[in-house]
Structures are given as C-alpha cells and as structure tokens.
Amino acid sequence: MSVFLDSKCDLPLFTQRAPSVNGSITSAKAADSLGPATLNAMQRRVLELLAATPDGLTDEEQQRLLGMNPSTQRPRRIELARRGLVVEAGTRRTASGRMATVWRVA
After folding, report:
1. Which one-letter DSSP state was computed for residue 7?
2. Domain spanning 23-105: which CATH class is it, in words?
3. Number of continuous H segments (helices) and E segments (strands) in the chain
4. What is the C-alpha separation between 45 and 40, in angstroms, rounded?
C-alpha cells in the first residue's frame, strides 16, 4: 500500500534504537534486533494505513489489516503518536465488545 504523505514523513521516522521497557532484558533484546530500516518500514506501514483510512482505526483493526502482531504494531503506533504524527480520533468497539481508541493521521 502506498499513500502520499507530506514531506515531514519522508525523513526516517525513528533514527536511533527502538524503545524498550526499562529493566526488561527481553524487551531490550527485541529492540536491539530491529535495525533502523526495519523499524522505519514498520512505522511507515502503520502510518500509510492510517493515512489511507480517514475515519481512523483501532489498534486491533490495524493489526488485522496489516497482518502485524500486536506486540509489533502497538509500539510502532505509540512511536508515531509520540512524534505527533497520529492522534486519537474517538473510540469504537473491538471484536470483544470493549471500547478502544481510534487513531488517525494528525
């Protein structure tokens, strides 16, 4: 899927190391296993999907549409939100009936 994104998104979305949970050895190892190119590609997949979906998507919907594990997608969306590239856009019910945040491109 390729969607035109403005020039601020043409730069690498994350240039250092993937974040990890403080004090978690497994989280640190997972972060270290992601090179910048892989990390940026995953972030870009999440961002492009949200750009192509003006009404926004929950994390669950993003995971399903991208075929991405929740432990991979959610941190990428959090990174994008911290950069101000995606924002909350309301709530919607998940498959289990719980309410979840809907995310859209800022």
Report:
1. G
2. mainly alpha
3. 4, 3
4. 9
Domain residue ranges of the chain, discontinuous segments joined by +: 23-105
Q: Which structure tokens are listed for 101?
A: 């945040």
Interacting residues of 38 by C-beta distance below 8 A, sequence separation 6+ = none
Q: What is the pLDDT of residues 9-41, one digit of tens each?
A: 454 565 566 767 788 888 778 777 777 778 888
- Tell me the β-bridge partners of 88: 103
| DSSP letter, residue 85 | S
Q: 66 vs 3, 46, 60, 63, 95, CA distance in Å? A: 14, 8, 10, 5, 16
- Render pLDDT for 58-73 as a digit per residue (tens, 0 to 9): 999 999 999 999 989 9
**Nearest-CA neighbor of 59 among 3, 97, 104, 101?**
101
Residue 26 vs residues 29, 30, 71, 86: alpha-carbon distances, Å: 5, 6, 12, 27
